Amino acid sequence: EVQVVESGGGLVQPGGSLRLSCAASGFTFSNYEMMWVRQAPGKGLDWVSFISGSANTIHYADSVRGRFTISRDNAKNSLYLQMNSLRAEDTALYYCARVAASGSYCDSWGQGTLVTVSS
Amino acid sequence: SYVLTQPPSVSVAPGQTARITCGGNDIGSKSVHWYQQKPGQAPVLVVYDDRDRPSGIPERFSGSNSGNTATLTISRVEAGDEADYYCQVWDGSSNHPVLFGGGTKLTVL
After folding, report:
1. Which are the contacts of A103, defined by CB distance < 8 A and separation ≥ 6?
2. What is the CA radius of gyration of chain B?
3. Is B81 helix (H, G, I), strand (E, B) or coil?
4. For the residues A91-115, what does the mean pLDDT come to?
5. Which of A31, A32, A90, A103 has the fewest CB atoms in 10 Å of its CB?
6. Which DSSP state fits B76?
7. CA end-to-end span of chain A, whole Å?
8. B46 contact residues in A (CB cutoff 8 A)
């Protein structure tokens, strides 16, 4: 069974840092592109970052570029999001999602990990 | 930058047909994907590549895409279809390649 499970969320002060992790199982992780998508409370889906299977292609939303860093460890079947200089507007549920092998859509999502930026 | 526009809400009676639109400049030239999200749950893919359904998604869910509008159609709507629906495209020419629409709340009356 394909599964992705996020962890690492929590309460952090503005300007602080947090590292999210996503553990993948049930598929050959290195063969799949991955992305992070977030959802602020009561709001819609907001794409954050994308990484190819070999990590040689990476994209970021303008709102996080320069502050967030996506990475992956294919030996550990894990995806990461290092978040620095956090702002109140980064408060959201962060989803890890697998990009389908055949296309540009997400075919498997985790349940999300909540990040709250507040003093 | 490319923008996807969805109506905030759509209401339909049980058994009727719901149509949720996703507007974008020449969206017909792109592949459109649709997700369903129920309260407290992660999004679920219901239609990909304009009109294809993942395994396990009922045939009542269908999609179309032409010109400046993509449409998710839900036939014979059931109470369990009440959810938020999001369209998504990949814009390969941009450094912001993944775009979501603002979402549509489907209410089953």
Report:
1. B31, B33, B48, B49
2. 13
3. helix
4. 95
5. A31
6. S
7. 40
8. none
